[in-house]
Amino acid sequence: NINEFRPVIRQLDDAAINRIAAGEVVERPASAVKELIENAIDAGATRVAIEIADGGKTLIRVTDDGCGIATADLPLALSRHATSKIDGSDLLNIHTFGFRGEALPSLGAVGRLTITSRVPGADAAQIQVAGGTMSAVKPAALRAGTVVELRDLFFATPARLKFMRTDRAETQAIADTVKRLAMAEPSVTFTLRDVSGGGEGRVTFRADRENGDLFNALHARLARVIGREFAENALQIDATREGIRLYGYAALPTYSRGAAVAQYLFVNGRPVRDKMLTGALRAAYFDFLSRDRHPAAALFIDCDPTLVDVNVHPAKSEVRFRDPGVARGLIVSALRHALAEAGHRASSTVAN
Ligand code: ADP
Ligand code: MG
């Protein structure tokens, strides 16, 4: 009798909802690191310190000197769809990394999360959430800013835990995430430290406070993150078309790679992985590179936030342009122009 097996519809509780959302927001330790660094930057931090252990599986700790979270707001910061960054009235006009209010509740649903924070002129406080269960707010000691500590990621979701790769692979993915965000924010100092197994392994990307000029600061940061050789072989790009600005550095064809490993693309300051944009990069170098070589570049596309939708996926690494043709055309023409000019300069030097 089919009526006996009729399913019952019930409302899921918050913990279950957060665990489901976590599946999209937090794919692996590196995604947690990305969310926490973005929160630090959104809070106006000038220094962000990231500590990890065992590929981020047992510990991720992000310390910032940003604006802090008011004690009364700590439970709210851990609640789903609670954000200080938008009021929900204009989803096309977003100027912060975050806006969905999903990262902290998601992390608290799948790991053990402790947030300690202090706003200027008040005492520090701390809140904990583990596997979706929130503790009461209690007093804490902290000079300024925020410390977010995530332990035992995915302990509450064993199925996801099984998909973790080796510590080495997860550490690599975290380092890549830190690099991309460090390129996006040259005026912020980042340190990444692996505190497991003796605590060796530390990288610092120091902000040069003197380096006020956009291109100087970016060039110095790229030299540190991608490498000196890239910086020495990179052409400065700066072009604007129909309200979209493209700037950054693209390497000479002689500095090409055997794989597409040194291609960093940013849209409105956000690191993105986008087929249309990498396709445009490839097309720009078409006449300058053999088929088995890949261009190296760090390119920033800035435009009015209403011309691009970043709300395509919870991780926000995909974007959708209102007019993809303009962005593509801009990349192809600006890079071709720079490469042709560099080639022309090189050949005229040889002729002299
Ligand atoms: P979102 O970033 O989308 O707003 P999150 O879940 O990542 O959502 O964070 C929720 C809220 O907690 C933020 O809107 C912000 O007000 C606060 N917050 C999170 N991290 C920090 C931080 N490092 N410093 C200050 N405030 C923070
Ligand atoms: Mg966030």
Automatic annotation (TrEMBL):
<keyword id="KW-0234">DNA repair</keyword>
<protein>
    <recommendedName>
        <fullName>DNA mismatch repair protein MutL</fullName>
    </recommendedName>
</protein>
<dbReference type="GO" id="GO:0005524">
    <property type="term" value="F:ATP binding"/>
</dbReference>
<dbReference type="GO" id="GO:0006298">
    <property type="term" value="P:mismatch repair"/>
</dbReference>
<comment type="function">
    <text>This protein is involved in the repair of mismatches in DNA. It is required for dam-dependent methyl-directed DNA mismatch repair. May act as a 'molecular matchmaker', a protein that promotes the formation of a stable complex between two or more DNA-binding proteins in an ATP-dependent manner without itself being part of a final effector complex.</text>
</comment>
<keyword id="KW-0227">DNA damage</keyword>
<dbReference type="GO" id="GO:0032300">
    <property type="term" value="C:mismatch repair complex"/>
</dbReference>
<dbReference type="GO" id="GO:0030983">
    <property type="term" value="F:mismatched DNA binding"/>
</dbReference>
<dbReference type="GO" id="GO:0140664">
    <property type="term" value="F:ATP-dependent DNA damage sensor activity"/>
</dbReference>
<dbReference type="GO" id="GO:0016887">
    <property type="term" value="F:ATP hydrolysis activity"/>
</dbReference>
<feature type="domain" description="DNA mismatch repair protein S5">
    <location>
        <begin position="222"/>
        <end position="340"/>
    </location>
</feature>
<comment type="similarity">
    <text>Belongs to the DNA mismatch repair MutL/HexB family.</text>
</comment>
